[in-house]
Every structure is written in structure tokens, then in C-alpha cells.
Amino acid sequence: MDRKKEAIKALVITGLSGAGKTQAANCLEDLGYFCVDNLPPALIPKFTELSSQSEGVKHVAFVVDVRGGRFFNDLSRALEELATQGVNYNILFLEAGDNVLIRRFKESRRRHPLQQNKALPEAIKLEKEMLEELRGQADTIIDTTNLNVHQLKEELVRLYSEGEEGLITVTVFSFGFKFGLPLDSDLVFDVRFLPNPKYVDELSHQTGDDPGVINYVMEPRLTRSFLRRLMYFLKFLLPHYVKEGKSNLVMAIGCTGGQHRSVVVADYVGRAVREMGYRTIIKHRDLEKYRDSGV
Questions:
Q1: Cβ–Cβ < 8 Å for 262, 191
Q2: Same domain, 211 and 248
Q3: DSSP run (H or E) holding 83
Q4: What is the mean pLDDT of residues 21-33?
Q5: In whole angstroms, what is the distance from residue 51 CA to residue 32 CA?
Q6: Domain boundary pick from 160, 195, 214
């Protein structure tokens, strides 16, 4: 068996309709799982084999439930085939109390997949009977009766995040106010109060990537004081975003043109956030305008 196939991990997400399988898949996707909803079970072994040969895919998750109709009966055979292939798989089973499931279906105005001509309580009872054996095979059972979406996410992070700081990805990018305020930002910091290299002849046509500009922006006590306070603020703020279940945070840092100060500060903040253990992306929205124009 090749090394990639040994490294692949598969998770089967199943359970009662309305118990939170879709929310679980969304959370696992944020944790780096390649998730597929309602895939016919017979295709799971082949899909897992193909995933093991794809670079960067180490975790796959399949939402499998009674929506698959007669195909659902193929699940046991598919799991046996995974075991034969040597794939490390687990079964996550989600359930909830009848009253809660009924309330959720009424609130969403969706039909239970087994309802057809049955009353909703009958459909839930039938589904429980169909899934009884699979529930007994589950590695993890989560009762979502008293869990909201954020609490379910916290539990899944605890079980499947493999020690990561959190599932949040922080995007830090620089921009120029004269080109417009970024619409997708969660936090905006204006650094136009810092000394501007634009008014220094030898730095005016350089960018925040150049050592001279970096030194000019970072050297003043004002800059160091600001960054110290900003990082203290982020150390307080980011864990609370994680706790609330936020998976992406966009932090925009702006100066007049997005050429000097915002670039330097965004690079510094992005590196510092990454060193704190968070997945971090650093972008410079308007920097190419100056590179392309040659000014």
C-alpha cells in the first residue's frame, strides 16, 4: 500500500434527519476535510481511493443517510471494502430527541425524507429503526438535542481539529482608501496617522516591500506603540471569534494609496497572527497598481 493511501482518513457522517449532519459537514470542511453530501455508498471506496492519490487531500467525509433510498443498503458493503483497502475510517452518528426533530422540521418547512404519506412522528420512528444497527457501529455519537450550531461546532472542533489553534482563517490585506473601502472586511484599521514615505524623495516611488520603506514606517515609536496595542487587542479578540464559530476573519489595513504604510503594517500583523498559531493569508489589494505602472 502506498504512503498516500495510508495517510487518508475517512469519516462517515450519518444519523437522524434534522440532527445536524449538514452543519457538521460544513464545520469539517472548515477543518480541511473534503466533504461530499449524499454520495451513493457504493462509490465511497472508489472516491476514497482517488482522494488518496490527490495531493493535499488527507481527510474525506461523506454524509450518508436514508435520503439515498435503496443505495443506503450498500453502506455496510462499502465500509467493508474500505477496511479491506486499509483505509482508516470512523463513523459519526448524530441524533436528537423526537420533539426537537419535529420542531426543526416545522421551522425549516422541509419534509422528512421518509414522510411521504406518513405523519412526521412515524417517519422519525421508522428512520430510527433503519439506523439502529449503524448507530451501534458508530465510533462517536453526538446528541444535538440541547446544542445550538455554535456548540455543535465546538464539539466537532474538539473531536476532529487535531490540535489546531482553531478553524478560523485570518486574512490580512492592505488597501488604499483612495481606491475604495473593502466591502468584505470584518475589521478595518486606518494607518494614515503614521509617517508617510510618499513625502521622502528616495522612498516615494518604492513600495512597502522595500527595506527602506519598511525601516521608515517601523522605526518611529508611534508605529511600535500602535502595533503593540493592536496585537494585544487581537490576542484578546481572536479566541472569542473562534468560540463563536467564525471560520473566516478578514482584517483590512488601509493607508492613502495602499503603497507604503498599509503594506508594511499588514505584513507585520499577518506574520504575528501566524506566529500565534492561526491560519493566515496576507494579501495586498492595491500594490500591483504601483508595480504595473512603474511609479
A1: yes
A2: yes
A3: helix 75-85
A4: 88
A5: 13
A6: 160
Q: Does the structure show a pLDDT above 50 at 5?
A: no
15: left (phi over 0), alpha (psi -120 to 50) or beta: left
Asked if residue 129 has pLDDT above 60, the reply is: yes
> Got the DSSP string for 188-255?
EEE-TTS--GGGSHHHHT--TTSHHHHHHHHSSHHHHHHHHHHHHHHHHHHHHHHHTT--EEEEEEEE
Q: How many CB atoms lie within 10 A of CB 119?
A: 11
CB 66 within 8 A of CB 135: no
In this structure, are 155 and 14 located in the same domain? Answer: yes
What is the residue-wise DSSP string for 15-52? E-TTSSHHHHHHHHHHTT-EEEES--GGGHHHHHHHHH
Cβ–Cβ under 8 Å, residues 173 and 266? yes
pTM (2 decimals)?
0.60
- Do 284 and 258 contact (CB within 8 A), yes or no? yes
Helix (H, G, I), strand (E, B) or coil at 103: helix
Three-state secondary structure readout of 127-152: HHHHHHHHHHHCCEEEECCCCCHHHH
Choosing from 160, 183, 210, the residue where a domain stops is 160
Which residue in 92, 151, 111, 90 sits closest to 18, CA to CA? 111
- Give the type of residue at 31: L
Q: Look at the block and give the residue holding cell 525601516.
A: 215
The reported pLDDT for the residue numbered 110 is 87
Residue 30's identity, in one-letter code, is: D
The torsion angle over the Cα atoms of residues 202, 203, 207 and 209, rounded to 10 degrees, is 90
pLDDT band at 291 (very low <50, low <70, confident <90, very high): low
Question: Mean pLDDT across the chain, nearest whole number?
Answer: 87
Domain hosting residue 52, numbered range: 3-160
User: Are 101 and 38 part of one and the same domain?
Assistant: yes
Bridge partners for 94 per DSSP = 15, 142
